Amino acid sequence: METLQGKLERCSINTATLGHREPIQTTIERIAKSGFGGIAPWRSEVEGQDVAAVGKQIRDAGLTVTGYCRSTYLPALELEAFRANVEANKRALYDAAQLNARCFVMVVGGIPEGSRDIGSARGQVHDGVAELLEVARAVKVPLALEPLHPVYASNRSVLNTVAQSLEMCELIDPSQSGYLGVAVDAYHCWWDPNLSASIADAGRSKRILAYHVCDWLYDTQDVLLDRGMMGDGVVDLLSLRRAVEAAGFAGLVEVEIFSKENWWKRDVEEVLSICAERLQRVC
Questions:
Q1: How far is Cα 105 from Cα 93, in angstroms, rounded to an integer?
Q2: Which residues, listed in sequence order, are joined to residue 14 by a DSSP beta bridge?
Q3: Averaged pLDDT of the chain
Q4: SS3 letters across 31-87
Q5: Could you give the CA distance from residue 19 to residue 27 in angstroms, rounded to a whole number?
Q6: Alpha-carbon distance 201 to 164, whole Å?
Q7: For residue 210, how many other CB atoms are within 10 A of its CB?
């Protein structure tokens, strides 16, 4: 495995890491000037803007869009609401294409409020992703299903392991078209006893589309908004990257940290500097 020392061009910053505190135009400039090779913007920063102009600025800055975050949740109690969710994601895919994103990150959604039927929710995810795959092929932006830690199964994602996400990929896209795969996020999957085997399976089917890093703190205070900086927690990030790259992933390592009470309160330049140091030392 090649070291990341002196190779920040192999690293990307998900803009959530900086707390969405500045306009996307400023964020693009900061990330590029810090020496990173990639950026993963969020829809809340891009929608309502001149998407083509944002994409041009990113390309002119020499950055790769490692992913466009994230999908509208798919499951809904009513068919009309489900259809609206699918259509929102179709529109986002067209924006992802203008940004030249390497993938559109699918956080698929949990059980609709008022329901107890997780099977139905997963069925809606299957149907929604199958429909979106046709658009993904047309605009040439792959869909990356991102399994979330099981603590989020109720309200954020009914896909909770890499293996489960791969199974859905095979059901929907058995031909392995290249337009449906998975995002491996250290925060969400580090705990999985079957992770090594699942990553190897994902490699064999060429479905690893993104790799995200942060850390799980030993005493996490908020499972959503208290992610750790790489090296501050319990995840063996070097071993995880070794497994992902051994499985064939050759893309950029993307930092994605949600940290309301810590990193989002720090100076943006300080956060970028520490990200750079930790990526090269512990990732």
A1: 10
A2: 40
A3: 98
A4: HHHCCCCEEECEHHHHCCCCHHHHHHHHHHCCCEECCEECCCCCCCCCHHHHHHHHH
A5: 10
A6: 12
A7: 28
100: Cβ contacts below 8 Å, ≥ 6 apart: 55, 58, 59, 65
Q: Is the dihedral of CA 139, 133, 12, 203 positive or negative?
A: negative
Amino acid at 150: P
Joined together, the tokens standing for residue 270 give: 């300080």
pLDDT digits (tens, 9 = 90+) for 193-251: 999 999 999 999 999 999 999 999 999 999 999 999 999 999 999 999 999 999 999 99
**What confidence tens digit (pLDDT) does each residue in 265-278 have?**
999 999 999 999 99
Helix, strand, or coil here: 216? coil
pTM over the 0.85 mark? yes
Helix H or strand E segment including 240: helix 237-246
pLDDT of residue 25: 98
Strands across the sheet containing 38-40: 64-65, 38-40, 11-14, 253-255, 208-213, 180-185, 143-145, 104-106
